[in-house]
Amino acid sequence: MKPRDIFLTKLKRGTAPRIATGSATSIVTTDLMEKVGVFFPEAHQVPEQMARLAAAGYTELGFDNVMPLFSVWHESAALGCEVNWGDRSRMPDGRACYQSIEHEISIPQDWLQRPSCAVPLEAIRLLKKEYGDEIAVVGKVFGPWTLGYDLFSVEEFLISTLINPDAVKRVLRTLLEITVAFAQAQIDAGADALTLADHCTRDLCSPETYLQFLQEIHQELHERIPCPKILHICGDTSDRIPFIQKTGIDCFHYDSKVPTPVARQLAGDRLALMGGTSNINLIRNGTAELITQDVQEKIAAGIDIIGPECAVPLDAPMKNLVWLAREAKRLGSNQS
Questions:
Q1: Quick one: CA dihedral 33, 305, 201, 148, positive or negative?
Q2: What is the pLDDT of residue 286?
Q3: pLDDT value at residue 301
């Protein structure tokens, strides 16, 4: 089986010659940028450079997939948020464009044609043309909860869940359509699967809040987006993995704050698991021996796709990512 087939098979907990390896979020480090000669901010703004840097996840690191959206701000920038696209040592950051949850969201008719969305769409086309069916091309969209943070600020959005829940629900229904539209555009451009990132971690969203506002939304996104989906939520999600399992989403990209055996038990037999390798303890500061041990633990627990837990720190050494992918392939052969 080709890397693409292995990745997409394991994303659905199917049988393959080995465990898959890859990332649902950014794998960019400063030394990876130097290796391929592509840097932020141009990698967010020029489709050819975005595609070239994303391809390094396969050509330089050895992962089974590529994912070209390195920022969390693509949709929000197209909707009017002011964004600083960073530099080789700094990820992008942005500012909310509304002060009150009651403010009606203005959606430009051409938001999908604006650079922050048009560039990754073209990058996906370029990657699909270059690599065809060899590797999995994974897109990325943000769920309406995260888009709500971006457009209204985290503080305004979260306070409103308590004092104005009806307004929050109206916002979520509006922004859900943004998520679906950008997802479909990426599928049309050639994406084989999509990361659905929605930052409803325990620090910002209780399990009761997840049930009240988001479980139904995530289930609808699963039903309306016609490709395999990887839900990414940072932080300790052990109190909501059983709820996520019920949405029908194919795969959950989990954080190392959830112990791997616990994640596997909570996910059950149907929900695939991806990631879980600590960015700080292992990707940034780990040794080859510790990374090998981590891979062995994940194989033993039945993790389907081995890779980093979230966007990799820019100052992490790419050699640790190379070793992670290499060990996953070596030790994960004939295990599934």
A1: positive
A2: 97
A3: 97
Q: In terms of Cα–Cα distance, which of 96, 138, 136, 141 is closest to 117?
A: 141
Residue with tokens 């696209």: 85
The answer to whether the CB of 297 falls within 8 A of the CB of 262 is no
Question: How confident is residue 202, by pLDDT bands cut at 50, 70 and 90?
Answer: confident
Question: Who's near 188: CB < 8 A, 6+ residues apart?
Answer: none
* Domains of the chain: residue spans and CATH: 3-331 (3.20.20.210)
- Angle 115-131/165-189 helices, nearest 10 degrees? 40
**CB of 136 within 8 A of CB of 8?**
yes
Virtual torsion, Cα 50, 316, 281, 244, nearest 10 deg: -10
Which phi and psi (to 5°) does residue 4 adopt? -60, -45
Q: How far apart are CA 168 and CA 214, in angstroms?
A: 11
Nearest to 157 by CA among 167, 236, 178, 179: 167
Rg (CA), the chain: 19
The helix (run of H) or strand (run of E) holding residue 196 is strand 193-197
Work out the angle between the directed axes of helices 165-189 and 215-224 (0-180°, nearest 10).
20
Instruction: Enter the tokens of residue 224.
Output: 């309306």
Quick check: pTM over 0.90?
yes
The tokens for 314 are 């820019």
- DSSP code for 105: P
Residue type (1 letter), 1:
M
